[in-house]
Structures are given as C-alpha cells and as structure tokens.
C-alpha cells in the first residue's frame, strides 16, 4: 500500500518520509489541529472543538446523568446483495488500523489514487442506506416510583411523565439550580400537560421528583453490575444494529456512517449560559426526516405506521438524512464517517486551500501591515481584525440573535471584551482578551502586539460604551469578501488551518531523528513525537502569545 500517498491524502502529514528536516517548505503538508469535544476525550480537548461537524454536538448534551457507562455502538444485519448492484468492497476505517480476517485481508478504498475526479459538483452516482435509527419509545415508570405534588402522590399521563423523568434524572446537576433552566423547563412541561394536570400542578417548587431520581440512579448502578454474559448479549445486539444502520453503499463501496441515530428527546443543555437551556427537545419522528439516496437504490423503509417527510435524490450533497431540531431550528444531518471518501475529500480540499495560502501569505501579511496606517477607518479595522485572525488564530465570528448564546469571534468583539495594557508583566503593548468563544468556552489571553496595532485598537475604543462593537465598520461577510479577492476561496478560517498545520509540521520535523529507519520514525513519531507536536500546536494556536512573533 502506498502509505505516504494515504498520509498525504488523509492527514497531510507523512510520517514515512526519509527526507531531511531541511527539505523545502513548499513540500510541507498541512494538518489542522482541531480538538474534539466528544465526552470520551480529555477535558482539555473537550473544551476546544472546531466546527465541524455539528452532528456530534447532541451526543455531548445527552450524557447520562449518573456516571453512565459508555453507550455501545448499535449495528444490524447487512441486507442481502442484489445481483443488479455493483460489488460492495469491504474496507477498514483506516489502512493503519485495518484488521485481517481469517485467510483474507479487507480491502481499503484508495480513493485518493483515483484519476477520475468529479468537477461538476457530483459527490456520488449510487447511494443506498437504511435510514436513521430512531430513539426507542418511552417506557413508563414502575408503579412503585411516584411523582409527588405538594406532598401528595400524583399519577401523570404518559407524555407528562416522560418529560418529568428528563428533569428528575438531572436533580444532581447544577442545571436544575439555574433560574433560566427551570423557567424554560416549566414553560415547556406545561405545554405537554393535560388541562386537568395544569389545574393541579401550578408551581415547580411544589413538585417532588426524588423517587424518579433515585429510580434512575438504581438503573444506572444495575447496568454497571451486569454479568459478562449480559454484556456480551448486549454487544451482539448492538453489533447487529451497527451492521444494518451503520453502513451504506456508495459507488460500489461499503462506507461507514458517522452518526446514524436521531437525537433522543430530553432537556436542552447547551454550552455555557445558553438562554434556551432547559427547553424540551422533542422526539424526532420519521415525518420530520428527509431521506437522500440514489434513484436506483432501495429507498429505506420508515418504521411501521409512519412515512418520511420527503425522499430526494440529490447527488450534489454528502448527507444521507436530515431533520430540523426544534430548539434552535438547526438542521441535523446523518453523515458519513470521517474515514470515508466524501469526508476525506472535503478535508483534502481544506488542506489544499491552506497549502495554496502558503504561496500568498507573505503578500497578504505585507498588505494588512500597510493597511494599519490607512487613512480610512474601515480599512484599519479590517487590517487589525486580519492581524488578530492570523496571529492569534481567532475565529471570525458572526452576529447572534437574542435567543442564542452570547458567543463572539474577532469581527463581533465588543469593547467590554478588550483591556489595553501599555505595560503588563514586563511586556509592552499588551491586549487582553476576555470573551466567550465557540461552544461558550472562555477565551482569556493577554497578548503583546505591535505598537501600531495597539494604537489602532485604542483608537477603535474611543468614545464607545462597553456594549459597542470594537469593529463597528466590519463584519464577517465584508472580511471574507475582501479575502476572496486576495486569493480565490480564501476565508478567515483558512488562516487557522494554515497556521496550525505549519506549526505541527515544524514540530514533527524538529522531533524526528533523521538517523532512524522508516519503522523507527513511524513508531517514535506516532507514539511520542506526535503527542508532543500536538501539545505544542495546541499551545501555539490556542495560547497564541507563545508564538506571536513566529513566521
């Protein structure tokens, strides 16, 4: 297998090359350090997730509330092959992790070696899948588990009881101590109640969810204490579901699906102090779901008694199914696994765009340095914003509605987010940032900047209130339109990819011993150097004061 070819295609960092550390920088490959916020990773990575892929976000919100065990992946039986279909090739998620079966080796789809490229926007010619897997129906509480109102047990209707369990299992969380969470929950819970229940249940303070909370704690403990046989049986069941719903056939190849489950109902948590926390996330039904597949495929069957909202055959998009969630009216998608061709191609294009930026970065930096002295305020603001995005790896930022979390990026910074220090901890011209960034993660960083940048920020803040925009003559659209004129397809996000990639590449070169053979380089780089490089990249990108003068 052409291992280096795969590395260039997927990660854009080749660990198998024997070239010198001093090879030309034009040969550097780029890789975007993008910490994932999935619950299975360490807390540091949890707090810094790049956008991607919004399909993972709901899994974080749906963490179990009593130190739950990890949810097993669900798969199911593979449908029998049809004679008229193309042969489906088995493949592993990654050539470096592929496992050999007894007497045979699974084949990897080397899509990066294919010479025929689609430039007409077509993503696939044939696409077949089983559709999403819906959350199981609600099971009522045992009869001995009671809900109490004003000290008296009360029998709830099924829908009202289900929503009550969402709140009851969260009693030990800080969320249920927050006024916003409780107000939102109370408002949505009342909408589910019958008229009779509304007449009786008139105050959340008089509701007692204690037995519900204790019941789910007990369920959680019982789950932890399952026998090996029970765990094995559940794993086999989940493997069967994964086999049925977790794969699709695309252009004759079997590809893994990233998230094939719909979001279960529950209470919205959000990140940080989200204004909609506590609102009811309703159950996703087949009537909410749009299916996307090819015309000549077998359209997935909806659950009995239901129908799909729509079935379409759009081969210019990469998603398999979609629906709109009811809290923020955002569209959720069933997408392919990151190891798939479509995801790999998208990443490849992203890194190629960053590689292209490398040819123009010197000219662009000279341009915004000159614009720092412009007589036009809008040009100065654009230059300072671009300086921050390039040097500090800030996201561009967009304006938010009142019912959205108050997170900001560079273009949406307010005066209250900036503190200027002529001298600070032995450094001159320090700009201190303090704001909530993506996912409501606090960004607090004091960074020394060039004197001209400092003076410009000082000018932008004059005669403004704390709630006024720092860049009152700039927004993300204006900035990206300008960047696209400098280089086709260039946006603010490409700077993050470029700077993180080149930092990681430089660290890998520094940590690689040229005297090692290929095997030793791969082993040591993968096990030790890569971790160190990733750590340094994290520091360089997310604690930019460490590298502000570099490059």
Structure in words:
Helix content is 35%, strand content 12%. The chain has 551 residues and is α+β, with helices and mostly antiparallel strands. The chain has 2 domains: 253 residues, DNA Topoisomerase I, domain 2; 203 residues, Topoisomerase I, Chain A, domain 3 (Alpha-Beta Complex), CATH 3.90.15.10. The strands form 6 sheets. Strands 12-11-13-14 form a 4-stranded mixed sheet, with no helix packed on it. Strands 3-7-8 form a 3-stranded antiparallel sheet. Strands 5-4-6 form a 3-stranded antiparallel sheet. It is globular.
The structure class reads: alpha+beta
**Average pLDDT:** 79
Pick out the low-confidence regions.
Answer: 1-105, 537-551
Q: How are the strands of the biggest sheet laid out side by side?
A: 12-11-13-14
How many separate structural domains? Answer: 2
- By CATH reckoning, the class of the largest domain would read Mainly Beta
Q: What kind of oligomer do you see?
A: single chain
Described by the principal axes of the CA atoms, the overall outline is globular
- CATH topology group of the largest domain: DNA Topoisomerase I, domain 2
Tell me roughly what share of residues is in helical segments: 25-40%
Q: CATH superfamily name of the largest domain? A: DNA Topoisomerase I, domain 2
**Largest sheet entry:** 4 strands, mixed
Strand content: 5-15%
Number of H- or I-type helical stretches: 14
CATH architecture of the largest domain: Beta Complex
| Secondary structure: number of strands | 17
Nearest-angstrom radius of gyration?
A: 27 Å
Termini separation: 36 Å
